[in-house]
Design a protein that fits this description.
By secondary structure, the chain is of the alpha+beta class. Helices cover 41% and strands 19% of the residues. The N and C termini lie far apart (67 Å). Strands 1-4-3-2 form a 4-stranded mixed beta sheet, covered by helices on one side. It folds into 2 domains: 31 residues; 50 residues, 2,3-Dihydroxybiphenyl 1,2-Dioxygenase, domain 1 (Roll). Strand 2 and strand 3 form a beta hairpin.
Length: 90
């Protein structure tokens, strides 16, 4: 046996450690992420305050190619979809 052979033998602690990490990875791959059980879909939502809502909507749609999802002018509120799926600005 050479100096490095014992690191690769099935009885070595290094080999056992690699086996444990491998089985932990396999177990983790079969578990559902905790966020799924809470209903979190991975989306992001950012609320911004602006002084001129209509001007802000024009800028976000014309310059950044956002699209209006909701617009409630009497409440001074709008929600826009970014080009990135599940990322919105309100």
């Amino acid at each position: 046996m050479t100096g490095t052979d014992h690191f690769l033998s099935p009885t070595s602690s290094a080999h056992a450690s690699r086996r444990a990490r491998s089985s932990d990875a396999q177990i983790g791959a079969t578990r559902r992420p905790r966020s799924v059980s809470t209903g979190y879909d991975g989306g992001l939502h950012c609320d911004l305050r602006v002084t001129d809502l209509e001007r802000a909507i024009r800028w976000y749609t014309d310059v950044l190619a956002f699209s209006v999802v909701h617009h409630v002018p009497e409440a001074g509120w709008a929600e826009l979809q970014t080009p990135v799926e599940q990322v919105r600005v309100a």
